From TrEMBL:
<feature type="binding site">
    <location>
        <position position="253"/>
    </location>
    <ligand>
        <name>Mg(2+)</name>
    </ligand>
</feature>
<dbReference type="InterPro" id="IPR004808">
    <property type="entry name" value="AP_endonuc_1"/>
</dbReference>
<feature type="binding site">
    <location>
        <position position="7"/>
    </location>
    <ligand>
        <name>Mg(2+)</name>
    </ligand>
</feature>
<feature type="active site">
    <location>
        <position position="111"/>
    </location>
</feature>
<feature type="site" description="Transition state stabilizer">
    <location>
        <position position="154"/>
    </location>
</feature>
<dbReference type="Pfam" id="PF03372">
    <property type="entry name" value="Exo_endo_phos"/>
</dbReference>
<feature type="binding site">
    <location>
        <position position="152"/>
    </location>
    <ligand>
        <name>Mg(2+)</name>
    </ligand>
</feature>
<feature type="binding site">
    <location>
        <position position="154"/>
    </location>
    <ligand>
        <name>Mg(2+)</name>
    </ligand>
</feature>
<dbReference type="GO" id="GO:0006281">
    <property type="term" value="P:DNA repair"/>
</dbReference>
<protein>
    <submittedName>
        <fullName>Exodeoxyribonuclease III</fullName>
    </submittedName>
</protein>
<dbReference type="GO" id="GO:0008311">
    <property type="term" value="F:double-stranded DNA 3'-5' DNA exonuclease activity"/>
</dbReference>
<feature type="active site" description="Proton acceptor">
    <location>
        <position position="253"/>
    </location>
</feature>
<feature type="site" description="Important for catalytic activity">
    <location>
        <position position="223"/>
    </location>
</feature>
<keyword id="KW-0464">Manganese</keyword>
<keyword id="KW-0378">Hydrolase</keyword>
<dbReference type="InterPro" id="IPR036691">
    <property type="entry name" value="Endo/exonu/phosph_ase_sf"/>
</dbReference>
<feature type="site" description="Interaction with DNA substrate">
    <location>
        <position position="253"/>
    </location>
</feature>
């Protein structure tokens, strides 16, 4: 089973590239972030035409997450995170994926706050959001089912996950508090699929549009797939569809994926 994460950076603007990627790679599940579409404007029919059911949690102009599943409509299990009722950002969507044999698989599409500029209210919100995510992750972990928390975490976990530590030193993505929040998830028992598969790092998932980031291969890893123990035990391989970042009018992120032997 292939489960992928893709920050599409505007689903309508990138639709040709998104459909192209889906048809070329055929993931069983695709978790999308930054769809930047209101619920009523989500183009579900485009995905139905190529065999994917969809659920989505939209927001006008920014944020927004979705989950696509091949040959089925994902069964929504949670929309948004508990703990901050005034938070109206569309950043978390969770679903159960049915399988013909064996246990269902739980997946979440996550778009964690960026947190810049830091210090400040946006960074404080990012850290609070990470605590709320950790609380939900603990509930899923206790269910002892295969689960994948997939998305754009806006955290660079290690120094070898960035082209230049110096260039990003003051960014919210690399602050000690951001990294500690991410590490707490790993200490709770979640497995960073790309992190354990490529311990030497140098695997980028994002290249900034500015300053020729793609042309110079100046990227970093902020798109992650965290696996619960029953999923980590079945990890076959994982990777980044880097080539899709280089196509015309592409997202600034590349799709990231895991394959599980279920």
């Amino acid at each position: 089973m292939r489960i992928a994460s893709f920050n599409i950076n505007g689903i309508k603007a990138r639709m040709p590239r998104l459909l192209e990627w889906l048809e070329e790679t055929r993931p069983d599940v695709a978790c999308l972030q930054e769809i930047k579409s209101q619920d009523e404007g989500f183009p579900a029919e485009k995905f139905e035409d190529i065999g994917y059911g969809a659920i989505w949690h939209g927001q006008k102009s920014f944020n927004g997450v979705a989950i696509l599943a091949r040959d089925q409509v994902p069964e929504e299990t949670k929309r948004g995170l508990d703990g901050e009722p005034e938070d109206e950002h569309s950043r978390y969507l969770e679903a159960s994926i049915k399988r013909p044999e064996g246990p269902d698989v739980r997946v979440a599409s996550i778009y964690l706050p960026n947190g810049n500029p830091q210090p400040g209210p946006k960074f404080d919100f990012k850290l609070r959001w990470m605590k709320r995510l950790r609380n939900r992750a603990a509930e899923l972990w206790q269910e002892e089912t295969p689960a994948v928390l997939a998305g754009d975490y806006n955290v660079i976990p290690r120094d070898n996950d960035v082209f230049s530590v110096k260039a990003m030193a003051n960014d919210a993505l690399m602050q000690p508090e951001s990294r500690q929040g991410y590490q707490r998830l790993l200490h709770d028992g979640w497995t960073d699929a790309l992190g354990v598969t490529y311990p030497a790092g140098q695997i980028w998932t994002y290249w900034d549009y500015r300053s020729g980031g793609w042309q110079r291969d100046q990227g970093f890893r902020i798109d992650h797939l965290l696996l619960s123990p029953p999923a980590a035990d079945r990890l076959l391989r994982c990777g980044v569809d880097k080539e899709h970042r280089g196509r015309e009018k592409a997202s600034d992120h590349a799709p990231t994926w895991v394959e599980l032997d279920l």
